[in-house]
């Protein structure tokens, strides 16, 4: 496989990864819906810029973690389709990474709503 392809070609590979995840991973589709809800919440509440920055970072981090988790799962399934405790640990850790970031995102939404509620929305 040729290394160091031009930028447009690497962007095409990345787009293919995004499309594959959106088509085949129910969790990724759920997270895309959650991100859409988060963006709508930001538009509705119009908080200070810092909330937008933190929110965008968190939402991108959840999606990126899910994509990396899918990559780990695909490789694990290729290397060891049979049950193996190390595959279980790799997949469980990948899922845990997504969970940690998702909890942070939910806390961010709760803090945003609480802060706006205190300010009378
Ligand atoms: N080959 C395997 N060996 C050992 N355990 C496995 C194996 N495949 C799956 N598991 C266990 O089953 C869990 C779910 O794995 P699976 O590949 O079905 O992920 P998934 O449900 O598609 O996850 P996600 O929703 O994050 O995509 C893993 O976290 C792991 O504990």
UniProtKB/TrEMBL annotation:
Note on cofactor: Mn(2+), Zn(2+), Cd(2+) and Co(2+) support activity to lesser extents.
Annotated a divalent metal cation binding sites: 25, 73
Keyword Repeat: no
Residues the record lists as binding ATP: 25, 73, 82-84, 91-92
Catalytic residue positions: 66 (proton acceptor)
One function term, GO molecular function aspect: ATP binding
Membrane topology: Multi-pass membrane protein
GO CC terms: plasma membrane
UniProtKB keywords: ATP-binding, Cell membrane, Kinase, Lipid biosynthesis, Lipid metabolism, Magnesium, Membrane, Metal-binding, Nucleotide-binding, Phospholipid biosynthesis, Phospholipid metabolism, Transferase, Transmembrane, Transmembrane helix
Similarity remark: Belongs to the bacterial diacylglycerol kinase family.
Protein name as it appears in the record: Diacylglycerol kinase
Gene source species: Acidithiobacillus ferrianus
């Amino acid at each position: 496989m040729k290394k160091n392809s031009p930028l447009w070609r690497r962007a095409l590979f990345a787009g293919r990864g995004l499309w594959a995840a959106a088509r085949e991973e129910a969790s990724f589709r759920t997270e895309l819906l959650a991100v859409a809800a988060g963006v709508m919440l930001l538009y509705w509440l119009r908080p200070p810029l810092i909330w937008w920055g933190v929110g965008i970072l968190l939402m991108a981090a959840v999606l990126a973690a899910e994509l990396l988790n899918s990559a780990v799962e695909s490789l694990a399934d290729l290397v060891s389709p049979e049950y193996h405790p190390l595959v279980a640990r790799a997949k469980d850790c990948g899922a845990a990474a997504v969970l940690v970031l998702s909890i942070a995102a939910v806390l961010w939404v709760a803090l945003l709503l609480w802060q706006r509620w205190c300010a009378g929305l």
